[in-house]
Amino acid sequence: MIAIIVFFDKMIDFDVKPFRSVVILLGLMLFSFGVIHSSVLLFKKTPSLVINDNEIIIWVFLRRERVIKFEDIESFFLVNTYHRGFVTNRLIFIELKEPSSKYSNSLFYRMLKKITSKEFANSEFSIQTNFLDIKHDELLKILNKKLREFNKSKI
């Protein structure tokens, strides 16, 4: 890090080597963002996911927390992302009964509705299980149980 500060003028010289300077600058910005993101996740006091009797609260980095009421939820389903045969990411999608007007009027939603199922298109929100201290199967069971309990209490 000290070497970067000392040799910054020599490393980033847009007149002599513009491509190298841009790559070094972008790499430095990406590294800085990674350090900031890791620090925020390490020192934050609020949980990333809160499941109440009536709602789910999802904390998203650099955004407002998202509150999803159980009365708006149709179901939950798991989507695995594979790379070379190995699961690299797991997401729990939340299928809504009716997506928000902003989302349903978007071009992305209309295209998604044409090429995929209604279940997937109506999934405006998802929970990424990589950063949570719970297995995805357990979380899916808890969410389905809470949804069933909410639907029973509503009747």
Fold and architecture overview:
The chain has 155 residues and is of the alpha+beta class. The chain is 46% helix and 24% strand. Strand 2 and strand 3 (66-69) form a beta hairpin. The protein is elongated, with a radius of gyration of 21 Å. The termini are far apart. The model has no long low-confidence stretch (mean pLDDT 84).
Write the layout of secondary structure elements.
Elements: H1 2-6, H2 8-11, H3 18-43, E1 49-51, E2 55-58, E3 66-69, E4 73-83, E5 86-96, H4 101-104, H5 107-115, H6 118-121, E6 125-128, H7 136-154
In short:
By secondary structure, this protein is of the alpha+beta class. The chain has helices at residues 2-6, 8-11, 18-43, 101-104, 107-115, 118-121, 136-154; strands at residues 49-51, 55-58, 66-69, 73-83, 86-96, 125-128.
- Total strands: the figure is 6
Number of helices: 7
Q: Estimate the mean pLDDT confidence.
A: 84
Strand content: 15-25%
Multimerization status: single chain
Low-confidence stretches: none
Distance between the termini: 62 Å
Strand order, largest beta sheet:
1-2-3
Helical residue percent band? 40-55%
Largest sheet: 3 strands, antiparallel
The shape is: elongated
**What is the radius of gyration computed over CA atoms, rounded to a whole number of angstroms?**
21 Å
Order of helices and strands: HHHEEEEEHHHEH
Structural class: alpha+beta
Index terms:
155 residues, alpha+beta, 3-stranded antiparallel beta sheet, 7 helices, 6 strands, elongated
